[in-house]
Specification:
five-stranded mixed beta sheet, alpha/beta, 2 domains, two-stranded antiparallel ribbon, D-Maltodextrin-Binding Protein, domain 2, about 500 residues
Length: about 500
């Protein structure tokens, strides 16, 4: 390997270590959101053998992420026992996302190196990896238990395989992305388009059926595994239909909401790197690249050729993906856009490196590279540090559920076996944080049901907790009307000292 190759590898290792350090910085600062707690609970049911096929659960996700969580619990955490603390369960549930996020940086580097570019491809690959490593958006999702980081890693692996002409592997990998989360199917057009662009010109319209057959077989292999699992489960309906039910259906967005939705989606896009300055820099890069499209640089030309097709494909997919989520009634959730961060990093890196290639004098090209690096450090240091301190509103929880683990610890220690714990908002959290604790969890659909059950079980120890960000006054009024007083027994607090949860024992008058 030549000196430049050794240097590139050293830089890439440094980028990976930086990315890992930044993703570990907010580790453990936040508790789980509702869906994270639910996925972790499902993974525990699989890992402990309590429900290996999730026959008793209305699962609305394909299985790969859930079984990955189960594997992580098996390898990195001891199964919970009655009365024990949750121990390392949170950490084990987050590890797949951490691994996927760091591996994603390496995959972006490899993918950017595989995409055609007349000049500066190695530099663009390193810059793309650095941009992803420094993305506050990506940093914060690396410490969650959501499905999205793992899905994005599979998508990037599929794009890499397609860009190298390995269509069988690309089909299998995009199938695994869809087996992790249904949204993986939205990246199927990009994978197929990159695979088609990678084919020799003579094979694009003929002689390529064998390659695409391998692609279909790879995808089909993943699909068969998912369908077998879904068919083997006793729970009806299947995960796809249950996903639609849980989501509440999906149709065109209401016309009167389009303006607000556009603003909200664009705010999330702005969070990819957390500063308007980055997007201004990228806009300048786009405009200058467009202005130089017919200019001759040295002995080659910045014209629209095969090497620029990749930029149009990436930009077109990113815009189309955003338009789809804007015009269709998807919930405006940050995790839906996680897959666009690495694609935007690659596109931005290619555009910014191409600006340097347009400079004739080597000395000025070097000055541009150093200046660009300094500018990116200046622009991104603030958002990166905020992400490391978990101060940006992306990824998981950022304080609302602080103290849920303390609340669970109190109940483990003080609630007698067989006690009733009423809940309306915290069911998923109790299932995870109180797993193995011999309490009867009772979800009340309305205050009347709560009061009725509390009267029936008036001889049992009974507890109820209200989050500070929810209004529990109707439940309190119904209990008091039934002759039941609420005795405060515990308060959990957030990192800023405010109360997050209040726990009450129900006492008969």
């Amino acid at each position: 390997m030549d000196a430049s190759g050794v240097q590139r590898r050293a830089i890439m290792v440094a980028i990976l270590l930086l990315g890992l350090a930044l993703r570990l910085a907010p580790w453990g600062q936040n508790r789980f959101l509702e869906d994270e707690a639910l996925y972790a609970d499902w993974g525990l049911k699989i890992a402990t053998g309590a429900d290996p096929l999730l026959d008793e659960e209305p699962v609305d996700k394909p299985p790969l992420h859930l079984y990955t969580l189960a594997l992580s619990f098996t390898l990195f955490a001891s199964p919970p026992r009655p009365g024990e603390a949750e121990g390392g369960l949170e950490t084990a549930a987050r590890l797949p996302s951490l691994f996927a996020s760091v591996i994603g940086i390496a995959l972006v580097y490899a993918l950017a190196r595989s995409l055609p570019m007349r000049r500066g491809r190695e530099e663009a690959a390193l810059l793309a990896a650095l941009l992803l490593a420094l993305s506050p958006f990506d940093i914060l999702f690396a410490s969650t238990a959501f499905t999205d980081p793992l899905m994005v890693a599979w998508v990037l692996a599929a794009l890499l395989a397609a860009s190298r002409g390995r269509l069988g592997a690309a089909g299998l990998l995009i199938g695994l992305a869809a087996a992790t989360k249904q949204q993986g199917l939205l990246f199927l057009p990009l994978v197929t388009l990159l695979g088609w662009a990678r084919l020799p010109m003579s094979d694009r319209h003929r002689k390529s059926w064998g390659r695409w057959l391998r692609f279909a077989l790879g995808f089909g292999l993943a699909a068969v595994g998912v369908l077998w699992w879904d068919g083997a489960r006793a729970q009806e309906p299947g995960f796809w239909a249950q996903g639609i039910i849980s989501y509440g259906g999906l149709g065109p967005a209401q016309p009167e909401a389009l303006g607000e939705r556009a603003v909200e989606w664009l705010k999330l896009v702005g969070g990819f790197w957390g500063t308007p300055g980055f997007w201004l820099l990228l806009l300048i890069g786009i405009l200058v690249n467009w202005g130089l499209r017919d200019r001759k640089i040295g002995n080659w030309e910045l014209g629209i050729g095969h090497w620029e097709l990749v930029d149009w494909v990436l930009a077109g997919f990113i815009v189309g993906f955003l338009l789809l989520h804007w015009l269709v009634g998807f919930q405006v959730w940050d995790r839906y856009l996680l897959g666009l961060v690495p694609l935007t990093a690659i596109l931005a890196a290619r555009l910014l490196v191409r600006l340097g290639a347009a400079i004739r004098a080597p000395r000025w090209r070097q000055t541009y590279a150093l200046g660009l690096t300094a500018l990116l450090v200046l622009l991104l240091t603030g958002p990166v540090l905020q992400a490391a301190r978990s101060e940006l509103p992306y990824g998981g929880d950022h304080g609302a559920y602080d103290g849920i683990d303390d609340l669970a610890a109190y109940l483990r220690q003080h609630a007698p076996p067989g006690a009733v714990l009423y809940h309306y908002w915290l069911g998923y959290h109790y299932r995870f944080y109180l797993r193995g604790v011999p309490l009867r969890l009772h979800w009340y659909p309305d205050p009347d049901d709560l009061a009725r059950d509390a009267v029936i079980y008036r001889r049992e120890p009974r507890y109820i907790a209200f989050p500070s960000f929810r209004d529990g006054s109707a439940a309190e009024a119904a209990l008091r009307a039934a002759g039941i007083e609420l005795e405060p027994v515990f308060e959990a607090r957030r990192r800023d000292g405010t109360v997050s949860f209040r726990l009450y024992r129900l006492v008969n008058w």
